[in-house]
Amino acid sequence: MSDAILKVSNLSVAYGRVEAVRGVSLSIPHGNIVTVIGANGAGKTTLMNAIMGVLPSVGEVALDGKPMGRSLVEARVNNGLCLVPEKRELFSTMSVEDNLRLGAYRFGSSAVPGGLRDVFARFPRLEERRKQEAGTLSGGERQMLAMGRALMSRPRLLMLDEPSLGLAPLIVKEIFHIVTDLRKAGVSILLVEQNARAALQVADYAYVMELGEFTMSGPAAELAADKRVIESYLGLGGGRH
Amino acid sequence: MAQRLQGMWSRIIAIAAVAAFPLLPGVPEFWVTLGGYIGLSSLVAIGLVLLTGVGGMTSFGQAAFVGFGAYTTAVLTTQWGMSPWLTLPFALLSTGLMALLIGVVTAKLSGHYLPLGTIAWGISFFYLFGNIEQLGRYDGISGVPPFSIGPYSLINSRAVFYPIWTAVLIAVVLSENLLDSRMGRAIRALRGGSIAAESFGVDTARAKLVVFTFAALLAGVSGWLYAHVQRSVSPSPFGINAGIEYLLMAVLGGSGYVLGGVLGATIVTVLKDQLQNLLPKLIGTGGNFESIVFGILMVAVLQLARQGLWPFILQLLPQAAPKAIDAAAPVLTHREVPSRGTPLLVIDKARKQFGGLVAVNDVSFTVNGGDIVGVIGPNGAGKSTLFNLLTGVLPATSGQIYFRGERIDGLPARGIAGRGIARTFQHVKLVPSMTVLENVAIGAHLRIRPGVLASMLRLDRDEEKRILAEAARQLQRVGLGEHMHKPAGSLALGQQRVAEIARALCLDPALLLLDEPAAGLRFNEKQQLAELLSRLRAEGMTLLLVEHDMDFVMRLTDHLVVLVFGSKIAEGTPAEISANPQVLEAYLGGVE
Amino acid sequence: MNSTIALFLAQDGIINGAIYALVGVTLVLVFAVTRIIFVPQGELIAWAALTVAALEAGAVPGTAYLLVVLGAAAAALELAREWRELTARYLLAMLATDLALPIGLLLAVIQLAPLKLGFTFNVIATLALLVPMGSLIYRIAFQPLAEATVLVLLIAAIGVHFALVGLGLVFFGAEGVRTTPLLSGTFPLGPLVVKWQSVSVLVVTLLVLGGLYVFFERTMMGKALRATAVNRLGARLVGVPVRATGRIAFTLAATIGAVSGILIGSLTTIYYDSGFLIGLKGFVGAILAGLGSYPLTALAAVFVGLLESYSAFFASAFKEVIVFSIIIPVLLWRSLTSGTHHDEDEEV
Predict the structure, then answer these.
(1) B43 contact partners, CB below 8 Å, separation of at least 6
(2) For residue range A178-227, what is the model confidence (pLDDT) as tens digits?
């Protein structure tokens, strides 16, 4: 077993003729939070989808040193990989509880009661709404449900795509607290965020993505102090004034 | 020019070849008869090509329209003693009325309901034909007179071959004319989804009805001819199975191409004849083996060559010449531009709720003439929803929106386009198979309106010249002049976005709405876009853009509105906004 | 018409309606999971009835040979399409389900059919022959089209219908059959004479509908199917093998189709091409209910059965016209009430 839970080597993804991700490599040590920051359209979501197997890619993705090859999404889920996508992708006409149950699909019904207990302990709001249809939830509750559903599959590596997207500042704080809590519980996390400041605060290590490539990387605290990063991602309006 | 001549020659050769076929020595009578049936089927298949491949709808009940044409003339000639030639208007009338009636009910429905409806009435009419006393029940009507010219009856198949293929030729010409016109572009735009088309004033329900009725009329003509070729009619050739075979012809030949219909009709008709003759001999039992082969063929074509077989032939033919642009064509009329600084668009407490989610929370602001106004906010802040409220794609839950003093919330997208608001789309909505020029010309849909019939008869050429000249002018204005004859799908994303702006300009708008115009663009593409938008402002255009890219809007806009979590938290000049602590906190806020 | 006739017609209508309900519910199910409007469901029903009839006569039913043909075709096509992707384990599974199982069943039926083992055997054999066909048909015709539009899938479904009807004629011939009912005899209920056969049809229908309810509401697999229909990507992300959901939906469809066929074979004469109209009537029910709700579909299908039964009495020649024309006003109503509908491309 290597010390990196996930190792991505020279990964490229193309939509038709356009290469959205070009020869990207990254590695996530066990129990770490690694973040990828970058502008809209830089290829961050594409990268996550490729790691998850939702998009076909060239290059290598290895989980615990084991190459995933061209294995299907469900095989990656079974290996403990889990993606909370930018658009949440909930089952909108099904109840909150059914959404959570399906999160435990890989274990079958027997894993449901224990999983529900854990998730409800972390997100008491979801327990209050367990009979409600997922489509009627507010934005923050949707994100909690998406994360709760992911936790039901007991992931070893959780990938969060823009978890603060469209959420009120207070809920964003709550979500980030949960992210740090999960890290304490031993879950490795790959975090993609447009809210670069928050992401760099919680992460151990960070990559900067521009036009499909990594242009910088380093310990999160170092990047947060880097002049170029501050200019491009932490200041308002690109810092021309 | 050489290309155009080449195209013309290949047409003349094709027509001459068809015309010479029955006259060639040694061609057996049987093959000429088959040729006639190919022509009859081609008429129906051409209609289905327009309906399925071009308009994005489909019908399994087209055989019923053939039946209407056939029964109309059979009744009129046998029971009322009319001459076969004179019944054509009646056949067209009965088929057309029926198509309008069914079309009004079903053509407006999107997706799968129309084809489902066609299966239902396809079956209904079969039983109806078979149970009406006047139509001879299942025996049908026999003794239908043949066509005649003076004393000469067109009884043998060599003689009727010509009226049939003349009708096919007319159908091909009318169909191609229709596609190459204002309404044709509207019909083709249906494939790209109805929102884009409606946003430029296309009445998509009417466009669907036009193509549906035209397809039915072609089937009616086929039926009218059939009755006098066959000299009798009965329900079975007009049932649902025949309808499915017609659809197979369109799909097999190439449902996007008029001549694909003829190709499909040829293959299916010949194949059916061969299968009915050959297979029982080979296998030794009777049965409808052709239906097994046809069914498998249908699925195989969809799996392996969804565009049908015509594109393979198209590769062998000389390429069509690009459209000529007549720069001297009279310019289309312009609307007056709002004066700089006066309120143009006033949004008053606009609100949109989806279930428990408040996507837009009582947002108010004003856009003044001659300004570029930006709406910014993090992803998911409600920008796109606000945009959809302004463009009539979504109805507001509450609040009001005024444009030039007139209330526009509640208007459909088409109505908003008609008042001079043009838009672009976050996810580009061009029809990839149409040229850039044709895509842009859809923008001028409301500015000049030649009729459908005039278009088919090529009486719309003056208007068409003006439309195309305008589209070309707008393409040059945005700097895409050299790409106008390429298929829109071949452009890079940045160019496609600019082409959408040209299409919007073609509407002659008083206000231009841009939905995330910079998303997915590369750095220099963004710079070019910003230059273009500044230039438009200098020319007097008012722009409202919803954007995620802060850098882009800061440089470009006169006024900014900041949305966070559905609510407006600030508005002002870019300088004011970038100094606003509330914006800093909400937009970039840290964890602790 | 007196009340006895009215009640008799009602009984007839409800029984036919029950069969249409099974068809309608199946179509909704398949559509929800795969977006395929599975017109050929009718052919599976007809084949099941014809299979029972052949077994009753002690003959080897055409379906036994058909299954071998379909299995070989599915295996061959999958090999041709995806030979690069297939693992040895998958190949072995394919060998077992696509070749060994059909051939084994064929050999068994050849041995056992002449013994005329009776009703239970006939039902089991029919289910064994029909159920595997669902996923075979899906793999041959629809799996390569999984990303296509509803329109393309519908055209493909019609193509499959065409091919299956043709195959039906080859393997079963043109003769009509009628099978012996599960229960015969009658009992009085007020003024009405009720056939035990009617009762059995109703009970089986209700059992199937109840089973579907339990499957979709109580089991992980059922919920996974629903989830796939609601959000395909979401389902993939929780690990549902969505490629398999299409096969599962079609297997369910074939199972319900086989049951429907076993039931309807004793109610009316079935020919190789009878399935189309039966399928379409279930379909009318599904459309009346908007291709969405299972209970509404079942109710609407019973209404179709009643409508058919009464129009057969009052205007028998126009029975089919009336049943299929009912769609038009419903579509009109939908077109008037639907208002702004979303673009197809917006929903994807």
Answers:
(1) B167, B168, B171, B218, B219, B221, B222, B225
(2) 899 999 988 999 999 877 888 899 999 999 998 889 999 999 999 988 88
Are residues C155 and B306, on separate chains, in Cβ contact within 8 Å?
A: no
Report helix, strand or coil for B355. Answer: coil
Residue B428 confidence (pLDDT):
87
**C320 contacts in B (CB within 8 Å)?**
123-124, 127
Taking CB atoms and an 8 Å limit, are B357 and A137 in contact across chains?
Answer: yes
HSE at residue B124, side-chain half, CA atoms within 13 A, is: 18
Residues 6+ apart with CB under 8 A from B199: B391, B393, B413, B414, B416, B417, B422, B423
Contact A206, A37 (CB under 8 A): yes
Distance from CA of A180 to the nearest CA of B (A): 11
Chain A contact set for C238 (CB, 8 A):
77, 102-103, 105-106, 149, 152-153
- Residues A25, A29, A31, A37, CA torsion sign: negative
Instruction: Write out pLDDT tens, residues B92-135.
Output: 999 999 999 888 877 666 667 778 888 888 888 899 888 888 88
Structure confidence at residue B489 as a pLDDT band (50, 70, 90): confident
Q: Would strands B511-515 and B421-423 be described as parallel, antiparallel, or unpaired?
A: parallel
CA-based nearest residue to B162, from B35, B268, B317, B296: B35
Integer Cα distance of C219 and C213 in angstroms:
10
Q: How many domains does chain A have?
A: 1
Q: Is the pLDDT of residue C343 over 50?
A: no
Q: In this structure, what are the phi and psi dihedrals at residue B152, rounded to the nearest 5 degrees?
A: -90, 120
Q: Which residue of A has its CA nearest to C224?
A: A102
Q: Are A192 and A43 in contact (CB under 8 A)?
A: no
| Chain-chain contact of A102 with C235 (C-beta, under 8 angstroms) | yes
Residue A47 burial class via C-beta count within 10 angstroms: exposed 0-12, middle 13-18, buried 19 and up:
buried
Of A89, A92, A93, the CB nearest to C237: A89
- Residue A135: which domain range? 91-154
Number of neighbouring beta carbons within 10 Å of residue A111: 18
Residue of C231, C244, C239, C234 lying closest to C347 (CA atoms): C231
Chain B residue numbers with beta carbons less than 8 Å from the beta carbon of A142 are: 357
* C237 interaction partners in chain A (CB closer than 8 Å): 52, 54, 73, 77, 82-83, 85, 89
A197 in contact with B at a CB cutoff of 8 Å? yes
What pLDDT does B277 receive? 80
CA-nearest of C298, B134, C303, C192 to C311 is C303
Is A134 within the bounds of a domain?
yes
In a domain, A122, yes or no: yes
Cβ–Cβ below 8 Å for A105 and C239: yes
| Interaxial angle between packed helices C119-137 and C62-82, expressed in degrees from 0 to 180 and rounded to the nearest 10 | 20
DSSP state of C138: I
- Is residue A24 predicted with pLDDT exceeding 60? yes
pTM (2 d.p.): 0.86
